[in-house]
Amino acid sequence: AQRVTQPEKLLSVFKGAPVELKCNYSYSGSPELFWYVQYSRQRLQLLLRHISRESIKGFTADLNKGETSFHLKKPFAQEEDSAMYYCALKLTGGGNKLTFGTGTQLKVEL
Amino acid sequence: GAVVSQHPSWVICKSGTSVKIECRSLDFQATTMFWYRQFPKQSLMLMATSNEGSKATYEQGVEKDKFLINHASLTLSTLTVTSAHPEDSSFYICSVRGSNQPQHFGDGTRLSIL
User: How does pLDDT run along chain A (110 residues), one tens digit per residue?
Assistant: First the structure.
């Protein structure tokens, strides 16, 4: 069965420091991966998806099929990056269902 | 602006009551709507997937008679928690998806059963 693992519940970094939020997945098919972000008191929203290969708000994520990882990175953290981040896996041919990781709370301190 | 409207945002009711939660797609026709449940400090768990005009597909372990889903139009889906009990207290979130669109999420509904 498919699974998404985010090993860190909380990640605390200082402003200006690099950030890496880890995500590993297990899936026998061809995965499509996403990062969603939830800012305080706001709805869950799409941050980026691996097929777009884009940088959003300075964040990037590369799919590494060998390591089955999709880590989210940003070279210099900003205070407004503090939020809850969820990694999600979409099953191909699975009715577009998403399987979410347990989420990582990112806290950027001054 | 918001793509998905979910209502109500918070409801408190007595045990045994049935509660209806609405999810509306504001900007596009939602071919598929999803209902999730989230317990405190835990991830979103998919409950069911609904396509307009057809019966919802429930995930394993989700009681379809307990959580009634109606997707009568391309812009509206409802989740009714029937005869709610305290263990049904949770955060319920809907998401919508149109053709070639990623999922857009609602603000969620916090359900508290006394």
Answer: 788 999 999 999 999 999 999 999 998 878 889 999 999 888 899 999 888 878 889 999 999 999 999 999 999 999 999 999 999 998 776 667 889 999 999 999 98
Contact A96 B42 (CB under 8 A): no
Beta strands in B52-103 (DSSP E): 57-58, 67-73, 76-81, 90-97
B33, B95 in Cβ contact below 8 A?
Answer: yes
Peptide bond into B8 cis (omega under 30): yes
Cβ pair B67, B80 in contact under 8 A: yes
| DSSP tally for chain A: helices H, then strands E | 0, 11
| Partner-chain contact A95 B57, CB within 8 Å | yes
Distance in Å, alpha carbon of B108 to nearest chain A alpha carbon: 7
